[in-house]
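Moderator note: this is an archived Q&A kept for reference. The question asked for a predicted structure of one protein chain; the sequence and the answer are reproduced below.
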Amino acid sequence: MASSKEIQDRMKSISDTMKITNAMYLISSSKLRKARKNMEQVHDYFHTIRRSIGDILHHIPEMEHRFLEPVDGPNFAGKRAYIVITADKGLAGAYNLNVEKKAEQEYHEHPDARFFVVGLVGRHYFQHKQIPIEEDFLYSSQKPTLQRARQITVDLLEEVRNESVQEVYIIFTRMKNGLQSEPVMMKLLPLSRAQFRHKDMGLPEGDEPEVPEEFFPDAVSVFNQLAPITMQGIIFSALTESYCAELNDRMVAMDGATKNGTEMLQQLQLQYNRLRQGSITQEITEVIAGAKAQKKKRL
């Protein structure tokens, strides 16, 4: 049985740990609010870009482009590339593991695919599993910015133009609610025509957007400019959603750790009180026994 000194030392250690978990909870909560605010600030801009592409495809539905899936449907199959978004640190529950397992499953199904991993935890996991990744693709997942999304877009488009890859997918984490998140895989290239349909652009059903039917200098040139921006928006959204999910999972994990620490402190306090009560009882018994012995000697 542990001594009272050992119990007190353990209680102090748990109390110090709870200060850390509580601080991490508050920090994650503050960062989560900022990340959501940044996402809301650029949402309208990227939505407008998507609607512009929807306008082009509405007026020229037969348009073919290397960044766009064929008119007859997504029957294209080629070498794949995956952008896998993980965190730079742990202590976020199963956040990293869920994404890593999904990416590993894709690797077993497509062993010739190329993996572009964002975040230190994911890079270490893939290296440990001896899954080949792009070593020069070094990006952090902390505090997503438009500039970082733009650089990732440039790197991927260069691979597509060099015909190193034909299809690009992005694996990230999406928040289902305040307590749960799930890994999601989305096709990035070629762009799906379905995501630019008018009814998906926020318009009432049967309504037509008031847009010009002429594009300068031509529709293909306009699409060449808008497609990379659309990819940048999707990547930025995925980075931000993953970052929000990471912070939310860390909040849940730290809140659970703090509650567990409180329960452990209560149990240890009860154990300490019982041990101290037993020690006091033993001391009183010894004093009474000594007093009785002295009384007998006098008699």
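Archived answer notes: The chain has one domain: 31-252.
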